[in-house]
Amino acid sequence: MAGSKEEFMVYNSMTRQKESFKPKVPGKVGMYVCGVTAYALSHLGHGRAAVNFDVLYRYLQHLGYEVTYVRNFTDVDDKIINRANEVGEDPLSLSNRFCQEYLKDMGDLQCLLPTHQPRVSDHMEHIKDLITQIINKDYAYAVDGDVFFAVEKFPNYGQLSGQRLEHNRAGERVAVDSRKRNPADFALWKSAKPGEPSWDSPWGPGRPGWHIECSAMSAHYLTFNFDIHGGGIDLIFPHHENEIAQSCAACQESSVSYWMHNGHVTNNNEKMSKSLGNFFTISEITERYHPLALRHFLISAHYRSPLNYTVSQLEGSSDAVYYIYQTLQDCEDALSPFQEGSLKEGTEKNGRTVKITPAAQECISKLHNEFETKMCDDLNTAHILTGAFQDALKLINSSLNLLKKKQQRQQQLLMIQSLVEIKKEVQELLNILGLLSSDTYSEVLQQFKVKALKRAGLVEDDVLDQIKERTLARKNKDFAKSDQIRAYLTTKGIALMDLGKETIWRPCVPAGEQPSLPNEQ
């Protein structure tokens, strides 16, 4: 495989250990990830799952695999029906609206579109066929138009979660229903109720249970044997446990090689969820922060670890991504006249290849090796943009300063080509992580500035007026006032930078308590 000399290790929730990744078909990967139940706007937990598995998708492609990535939408569900009844909207219309909102949010977060995005409502025949197979193999039974899976028929029930059948008490994880043979039996098909959407079936009109949907859609697009099944850690039980039971009941050879689960997003160390009312929607965050900053935050912890949401961490991510893009912009500005002229694609006019400096070679080697080592270790994105990555940005900036000085032609070409190669490596790494925007660097930087002004409650003219006031104060040697203006703007997340006789501003992490302006005292 291209991309890495190291063995790609992934943590398998089924075996509870890291394992070497080996797909069932060499060179090809089948991956199914449980998507959202579309009844409300997506929150950070949904964003984390999508971003984490998008990083996996991108990295597998980087390794040279042809990936079939399936992520479903649940658009038929109790929660959707209840919400639709509350607002007086058709359930399928409501769920379609929130599917579109989800796609917009994930597009903003730079998640690649999966190969397939099936919806439950489009796969009713596949679901009914699968239920029929399970009944025919005596793993399920019909009662008054409902169909239940008989968990006692499946001896391996609990193998993924470690949950024992006797712990699965009715009323906690599953609905209480005296018609069940075992309180832990779960619904494959629910009979129609007045005012609910329903489809005809051999057991009467109704709709599918939640768990059967994913078994049917994964089998349809990937067969019963595929490589990766993913989702949030809260899906291990009962959802994924029930999927395994259903799929194995229908097809004895059913097998998923690797079960992968991402950790929760927490708010003050408590799981962020709609039911607890302590969540933030993705659109609420991206209204105030650039989506790239949010994506950076979402990959800042290992995907299996809890990720605690704080404003300070989001501010830190915003500042980190701004610095990356400012460095790339400065590099592009410095290189553009040379690349348009005598230097292009690492060659001189006479056709000789231009080498790079030993420092640049070492930097690129370290950057590549450190990145691959971390990614091959179960996608360890925590701190992946520190260490060698920060060293690369520092080398770019120090080289740009040297480039401004007068040098011999050969030394200048060496420096330029070194910058070209380092920049290329940085861009490739960012692209694999989904942090390389299709917009220009200058456009992204401007977008960050717009968000910073919004958070500060200012418009750019306000900042420019403060810069003028400060310039006048400095001219009058009123350095106390000059420092006060700078300190005030810094608390607002606006940093002033003096470049010769010019002062410019950029976003920064807000600092300290907010002092008043001189004219407010």
From TrEMBL:
CC cofactor: Zn(2+)
SUPFAM superfamilies, A to Z: Anticodon-binding domain of a subclass of class I aminoacyl-tRNA synthetases, Nucleotidylyl transferase
Residues in tRNA synthetases class I catalytic domain copies: 21-316
EC number(s) recorded for this UniProt protein: 6.1.1.16
Enzyme class: ligase
Keyword Nucleotidyltransferase in annotation: no
GO annotation (BP), single: cysteinyl-tRNA aminoacylation
Gene Ontology MF terms: ATP binding; cysteine-tRNA ligase activity; metal ion binding
Keywords of the record: Aminoacyl-tRNA synthetase, ATP-binding, Chloroplast, Ligase, Metal-binding, Mitochondrion, Nucleotide-binding, Plastid, Protein biosynthesis, Transit peptide, Zinc
Chief place of localization: mitochondrion
GO cellular component: chloroplast; mitochondrion
Localization: Mitochondrion; Plastid, Chloroplast
Cross-referenced InterPro entries: Cys-tRNA-ligase, Cys-tRNA/MSH_ligase, Rossmann-like_a/b/a_fold, tRNA-synt_1_cat_dom, tRNAsynth_Ia_anticodon-bd
NCBIfam families: cysS (TIGR00435)
Assigned protein family: Belongs to the class-I aminoacyl-tRNA synthetase family.
HAMAP family: Cys_tRNA_synth
This protein's name: cysteine--tRNA ligase
Organism whose genome encodes this protein: Prunus dulcis (Almond)
